[in-house]
Amino acid sequence: MADIEKLATDVQLARRELKNIRQECMKQKVNLKSEVAKIKEFLSKNPPMEKDTYSCVKKEVDSRYCTTPIGFISSCFKTKNGIPRQPALCPAAKGTLTIEKSIFSNPEHSLIGLNEFSHIWILFVFHENGSRTAVKAKVHPPRLNGASVGVFSTRSPHRPCAIGLSLTKLDKIEGSTLFLSGIDLLDGTPVLDIKPYIPLYDMPSYLKETLNEKAVQEHNNGNNSILHQAGAENVIADAIVSSALPNVPSPCNSKNIDCNVASFLTEIPKYLDVLFTDRALRDLERFHAEGSHEGCCVNCFAFPNQNEAKEAITDVLKNDPRSVYRRTKCSDRLYYFFINSLHITCWFDESIAEVLRVKPCTDGNEKYDNL
């Protein structure tokens, strides 16, 4: 009995303690609500310096730096298949850019003086990237055949900010429309800005002098291999033009400048041999230039003649426009692409690309090949 009485006394004591704890919790809860109300009242009267926080700065940047396209590219490439990975790989690839009247009341005034330049930089948006919520830090450039590098060491279109930069040839300007060649842009690409290409400032002086010296040395030795590197001809030409400018000061001391690129870009590109079947050649012969007759038929194309069309197709295919996945997983499948009004069917076999058929581009086969 004594043990039972002692246990009952302990239970009553525990109950009193629990009751005291509950009362204390209720009291502290009331005090907390009071303190929170005081803090809210203080903050409403004295707002914090939001601009000092990253989130507020980001919000301000997002609201202030919304970009509006100055125009949209009208390109010979209507789908992503077959678009050159870099500008100037296909000189016959033509396009136009018209400055929107919503940007300037007289858009042609913004182009005054630009016709004195032969090339321009185009800043554009990769608008067909798909979802931008899953951008990867590592990508697989086609020239590395599956090896991965950081996205910022490449020109991959899949970037946190889907902005591209392209150097194109400016053929002429008519009103507010620029006529371009050597483009690598999809039809409908939004353009954010254009800037003139200036060799004196856009190319490191050290690089210009080095390439020029190597070209002269190789030429004297009877070896023109240096001239076959991608873009070397244009680089050396620009260096010569720049060096011919009288009394133009160098923007920096070239002796203190070095210019390096990734090792995989120092190798001479391996071009594919492009072949045309007899049927493909007969297909090309059926096409003719626009304006060669009254009206327009399905066999009219934007090329001056069949030879230039053949050259444009060759320029696209010799650089192997396929992705790494298509080269490794789907190498036995036919490859389709569009250029101007031509629908090209081809296949690849190791170092060969063979054009099987060339037919007019219609809405039907365009939709089919985009599946």
TrEMBL record:
GO molecular function: methyltransferase activity
The gene coding this protein: TRMO
Matching InterPro entries: TrmO-like_N (IPR023370), YaeB-like (IPR040372), YaeB-like_sf (IPR036413), YaeB_N_sf (IPR036414)
Alphabetically ordered keywords of this record: Coiled coil, Methyltransferase, S-adenosyl-L-methionine, Transferase
Coiled coil: 4-35
Native species: Araneus ventricosus
Keyword Coiled coil: yes
Domain annotation TsaA-like: ranges: 67-206
PROSITE patterns: TSAA_2
Name of the protein in its database record: tRNA (Adenine(37)-N6)-methyltransferase
